[in-house]
Amino acid sequence: MDDSALSLAEKQRRALELGREFLGVEHGHIQRRDDGSRTDTVVASDGNNPHLTDGATLDRATTYCRRVIDTEGPVALTDAPEEGWADDPAYQQHGLDCYLGTTIFVHGDVYGTVCFSSRDPRESTFINEEKAVVELLARLLGREIESAHHEHRITETQQARKRAENKYETLLQQAPDAVFLADADTATISEVNERAADLTGYAQSQLEDMSILDLHPPEERDRYAELFGTNFSDGPRDRFADGTPLYIRRADGTDCPIEMSVSSVDIDGQEFVQGIVRDISARREHEQELARTTEFLQQTQEAANLGGWEYDLRSETLRWSDEVCRIHGLPPEYEPTLSEGLDFYHPDDQSIISDAFEELTTEGEPYDLELRIVTSDETVRWVRMIGRPVYAEDEEIVAARGVFQDITDRKERERDLHIKSRALEESTVGITIADADQPDLPIIYANEGFARLTGYPTQRVLGDNCRFLQGEETDDATVTEIREAIESDTPIRTEILNYRADGTPFWNQLTIAPVTGADAEDVTHYVGIQDDITAKKRRDRLIGVLNRVLRHNLRNDMGVIMGLAEMVTERTEGETAQMARQISEKSSEITALSEKAQDFQTAVDNSEPLAPRDVLADVEAVVAELRTEFPETKFSIEAAPCEDVMATETLRLVLRELGENAAQYGDSSGVTYGIEMTEDDEVAIRVQDGGPGLPEMERYVLEVGRETPLEHGSGLGLWIVNWIVTGLGGEVTTTVDDGTTVTVRLAPAAEGAVPEHRDAALSTQGE
What we know:
With 767 residues, this protein is of the alpha+beta class. The strands form six sheets. The protein has a six-stranded antiparallel sheet with strand order 3-2-1-6-5-4, with helices on both faces. A five-stranded antiparallel sheet has the order 8-7-11-10-9. Strand 15 and strand 16 (397-406) form a beta hairpin. It starts with 7 loop residues before the first helix and ends in a 5-residue tail after the last helix.
């Protein structure tokens, strides 16, 4: 029998039978929602369930269908008790373990549900394809019901036309959708119903005598004119052939998406075009929401680097999702064999996955592994591989299914964290971390270096504030300085006298740095670094004492020697007087060397903070002093506009030493100080003389700050220059050509810029 001759009920039963066979379930039925009550009427069923016989009326509160209607979407259960539905009235009343149902829409409204169920639980969850089939059945059934309603309306209209003289007017006004009647030749609207007025926003009287084409977007007018001349025998349309949606242009200028049927009718011998138009805004929004949801799920899958896979043991076919292909560096259409899929694993991991897959497919043993793969471009990536068995009704394993996730970034973070943790633990200095969000900044981490330094076990100090290291002779001013730095969230480096667990004092070079959270604003922790510098403090104190004693005795004794040498010079003649004069000169040189040593100590001990300095002002001040000390030498300054530099008062020691050296060993041509900006945006200070040229060994000392084992610089002055300049983050170079030019290059004091700490430069000197 032709399907078109079947009744609606028969079509419904056939559709249910197909669905039951496809899903492999016992029952299939359609429940029609009865408006105005809490009951559903079963309008078709498979006839095997006494509760769901054709025409039965059920309390909606005892059916799963109420959940479908409430959500207006599919509800899928494979084992109701296992999935938390054991207390549901639907399960208790009907005992259905397995259920898959979705909503039937008729004319855009909820008509009821189409459902498939079984009393026995299902072994596997409903896949997307099965849900899609039920959704398709719901749409087809809805369309059949709409068609049945439509046919019923036409039948009623035909009967009404026979009973009344104005047959078409009755049909027009009773139609549930907007109906337009227009002249086939001119497209002028002759009649509309109230639904047409409601849809367009025009009054019925306004619509009549308008062109039907005026009710569509003007830019598409020609396409609509062509559309009205086509055959709509295949049913209503909501799009043009190219997929462009159909719209009605309302009176307020807005466009409403529509579904439209067009047919030719003959009324009293005149041909008209009849258009039946339905507002499908709700349906279009539902479709768009479905598309957005699908896109969202795809994006979520990509963001999580998570994909799915399935292997069918019967057909021996392996399926990968798009994301699994992407992780492997392959196009989405790639269809791997099982052997090819396993070959992607790292050689050292292939036996692991092979054994796990064998146990999964033979013993049903699931696995959750983290292994390496080698992608198509030879990149090694870490993946998390989860596999689960899929059973048939006879408990046979028929497939393997799971997820596949790229965890390379996580593995790299874990590796970096492990390396950093080991570095902290194995560090020779003490390291602690205090929690800034808790009162009194308790220690939450201390490394083994801290335990070795202080004698306190790591577990003993957790939860305490670091002040337990302070003791009787700890300097209060230093403690206050540390507290103020913490309160202002600024880093600090200082030296403080602390005490070990056995009471032994030690000098602690303490560095405290605040650590901000993810927002880079609020301080969440403080990192403390403790280094025992007791031996260094003792050595520095001893050297200081020896230095003061040596320089004091040197000055006094050299003064006596110089006085005696002058007396010998005055009282003798010849070779004896000459030797006395040499004694006096060497004594003066030794005394001058002592003063240079004092300058050197001043430079080393200088703790003045770096600050912007006017280079020209420093040069002018130094030149003024040198002109007084060396009146016979001509000093000149050639300065171009330049920026300030980050430096300290010790920069003047550099400028003075270079000027003194040029005045003493240059010639009568004088000494010139030059200042300019270089092509590298550095500030260059040049000191030039016309003398015989600085010896190569002296240039080496000046530029490198180091002596060779067999040669020694003639004085400490050049050492001072190198020491200070490199400590300021600068560079010293020399050029010998018709004299000597010494160039000091320093970075400009750009706003907020601070050169590397001077200790970093000093650490390379004296090697």
